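Standup, Tuesday
Yesterday: got the pipeline producing structure tokens again.
Today: sanity-check two examples.
Blockers: none.

Example 1:
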Amino acid sequence: MQIKVESVSNVEKKLFIQIPEEAVTQEINKAYRVANQQARIPGFRSGKIPRALLEKRYGASIEDQVFQDLVKNSVSHALIEKKLKAVRVTEISDTDRQEGKGFSYTASIEVRPDIEPKDYLGVSIEAAKHSVSEKDIDDVITRLRESQAILKPIEGATQVSVGDFAGIHVKIPGKEGTDQSYQVGQENGQKALDEALLTMKVGDTKAVTLSVGKEGEEPKSLEIELELKSIKQKIVPELDDAFAKSVGPFETLADLRTHISKDLEADVLQKSKQENIKKILAVVLEKNPLELPKSLIEGEIDFLRRRVEDQMLESGLKTYPADFSKEKLESELLPQATTRVHEQLLIEAIAEKENIGVSNEERDQQIALSARQARIPTAELRAYYEKTNRLGSLDFQILAEKTLDFLLSKANIT
């Protein structure tokens, strides 16, 4: 087989392939032998059908399939022989079959660019600066206290005040009424509801017009019948050692604060690390411009778009907003997808140059860790990765983490 490679660009190649007559004839004869065994023609037993009859009835389809198989197998062989890292075969053209001269065609392919990464060691960046303040610790404790708060009836109260929790019964015309708890005067509350409740006494009913609607849509009026049934106040636990014991294995409030501080410090360190890595990557990308295969960018856009659509479904949106579209989303995702592909290709190139790899043991450890976090058996998660062909993605995730840690260790951070 003769193979000639023409470079259109760093990511586009053309293969001119000539398959000799002997190989073509061999494959055609093999195809007719298979057809002879499988064909059903009245008056002839399987395997005893004249070749001329098979050619007359099935010749075009048999030879078309032979040429398709020849293209598929010869392209794969050519890519290996010429050591081309193909991304996608974009076009097969100029197919030519001449009796006695074999079969030839041209294959247009996209390939990963040849990358010789440079200037990625000793990158100088300004360190991300984050710290844990006493207010940060106080905020966590406040949330913990809020999570343990209870609503307690206000003895003797007949009218609500701002901040109280009103036990209300809401009746919408044509629907069954519901009991709800509503904090009067809350930041995102209904002004009409607040105004009504502040003028009511326990047991009173009143017709109220609310303004309702999804964000970004024209609000609509909703008539409800409102009944004030009870008045309660939120009681949060006292900030003392007893509270600390109630939320975990802590003897004192000081122990709880120390534990929270350590957790926040760990979060801050991780956040700072990720910001530093992002800065390093930005520098390395700028110093290593690449021509990127279009199909890799298209695949990344598709991945990001499906992720956005999944998030839309989780939030209750089944279709794009009226002023949006799939095409507009993909256009907005293009810069992010381009950067991600650029990063992935450079990370792989740096890992190869620095002999950074992923061992079976490292993969097993990552699967076991992910399984523990998801609270599922390790074997079940491994089977999922294998069934969905995601072991390659997992390996890249580990490789990327190791490579980025390597770049971080070599960076000049001030």
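Example 2:
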Amino acid sequence: MIDLRPLQAENGTPLEVLAYLQNFVEALCHTAHEETFFLWTNSQEKLPKDFPRWRYSNVRYIHTDEPNKLVNLSTSLFRFPFLDDIVETEAMRQGLLPWTQKFDICLFLVPCCAPLETNGVKAIFLHDLLFVHFPEFFSAQKNIFRVNFSRLKTEVYEASLIFTPSCFTKNDVLRTFGGEEEKITVLAGGMSAPIERVEDEEVLQAVKEKYALPDEFFLYMGSSEKQKNLPLLLKSYALHRARNGHKSWDLVLAGDVKHQVYGDRRGVYAIGSVPPEDLSALYSLAKALVYPSLFEGFGMRVLEAMAAGCPVISSQFSALPEIIDDSGLKIDPASANAVFRAMQKIFSSPELQEKLRAEGLQKSQEERFVWDTIAEQAMGKIYDFFEDNE
């Protein structure tokens, strides 16, 4: 059983974490086709039409009507009800599970967790601990991410298996909660959609016209959440513009970024969300991706830029160095001057641009960034667990 509550819009999962979880769950379902996956959602509201529904013969959907706030309150205060019992009962009622049969394992996508019966096997996926270290980054609308420290510590200790997308998150879990290192498996991650380098001038020109893009520009791709550090990026860009005048490259902000907040500045364009079919061309048009995030459990946007041959400027902290390694410029995300200097390096050196473009393309092709490989690694760990505990 996999708990899909974080994929429900009402729970406010950050967009890049949401993209990771959707791709991860789908890869599990279509890769381990010999297994049956029960995917659980809950809410008194019906799921919207655009909710991801994977049409595989081994997938069964279970929906129950308990309000998520009530489930969270009850399970955190009383460690009851047992979630596997609720979902198993509903699956039996619908004829999807034989009576008295239990799920082999229940996978929870943190911060959505719940207690299981004493003989239940729990696995959790922990993208990062941003909500533990920086709860002030989350608005009241994202209360699901305001997870009680002791509650999450309990979940970590109860889990038989823990999956993380980076060594950074693994080490953060061990530093923050302690626990057994051998329970934690690092899976890495892939892209939100297939991305490749685009050389076709007609395709590039069409995307350029569609979004009214400037000729030469730095790109930011992502959300305007506090940890993404957009105010510092704008300070760094202002330094670039002051230094280079009319020769400056522009700055394009793509994704969930409000134009009225960030777009009314000289040389700055906020183009909003970009559909998957335009991402490859957008990254290919950009001179460089600038991504000074303060905290990342993985770094999907950095990987996507590299896959399109777009040079990357990114943070030297959290999980981002695990992706870019030496194929991008790493900066201190607390220093506007450091970001500005990296922008200037790429701006002034076509040779560096070409070097980073080639190295990023090569790095992005590594097997650890393929979703099917990630799913196979996760299932292999699950199979090993059951073999070791027979």
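Quick observation on example 2: The longest strand covers residues 217-223. The CA atoms of residues 211 and 264 lie 16 Å apart.
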